[in-house]
Structure formats: structure tokens, C-alpha cells
Amino acid sequence: MSKINDPVFHIAPLTRVTREKVSAMVQAEIDRQDELARAGKFHGTHIMPGGPDHDRVSVLGEEVGEVSKALNEIKFGQATREGDLYLELIQVGAVAEAWAAAILEGRG
Q1: Where are the alpha helices (DSSP H) in the chain?
Q2: pLDDT tens, N- to C-terminus, the chain (108 residues)
Q3: Fewer Cβ close by (within 10 Å): the C or N end of the chain?
Q4: DSSP class of residue 84?
């Protein structure tokens, strides 16, 4: 595709190193949540083996709500983009990845 026909030619792609760092953080978040579940904090993990999708979407929705909350806090100087927002986005990614993995593994 030529630059003339490419509407995003001016946007540099994300680097592989950056994408791998984010992926590793998402994996670590899945592991962290699993450990919290084993310690009794939750009734299930993000994967929720055999769990219904409506339970999973509730967890995902809660995490998206935390992203919105962080954005509002950033607006008023109560949170940071590099810290609070980033970590909430990692949690959204963890829930979404674990849900997709559960589907691939036939866990509901």
C-alpha cells in the first residue's frame, strides 16, 4: 500500500520490545490474580474454569470502569497515566486474555 492510500503511514508502529513488555505484564497480572484467588480473595480467577460468560464480562466491565476512574483522576491530578492508568489497562488485558484462553481451552 502506498503512503497516499495508507491513512496511518505517519504513525510509527509499536516496537516488538514494548509489546513483549506489555504481554509479560499481562501474564504476570493473570498469575497475581490466580494467587489472590488461591488465597481466598475471590471466588474464582479471571479464567474462571467452566464459568459463564456473564460472570466474565462482569469482571471485564469492572476493570474497564477502573480505567475510566483512572482517567477522571488523571484529569484532576489524582492519578498518573504512567502508573495508575497503565496498571488498570494491564488488568483489562489480563481479563480479556484469560477469557480468550479459557474459550480456546474449552473452559466455557
Answers
A1: 16-38, 53-75, 86-104
A2: 567 788 888 899 999 999 999 999 999 999 998 888 888 887 666 566 667 888 888 889 999 999 999 999 999 999 888 889 999 999 999 999 988 988 888 886
A3: N
A4: I
In angstroms, the CA 3 to CA 8 distance is 8
Per-domain residue ranges of the chain:
16-104
Q: Which amino acid is at 36?
A: L
pTM assigned to the model: 0.84
3-state class (DSSP) for residue 99: helix
Classify each residue of 30-44 as buried b or exposed e, where b means 16 or more C-beta atoms within 10 Å of its C-beta: beebbeebeeeeeee
d(CA 94, CA 56): 12
Amino acid at 34: D
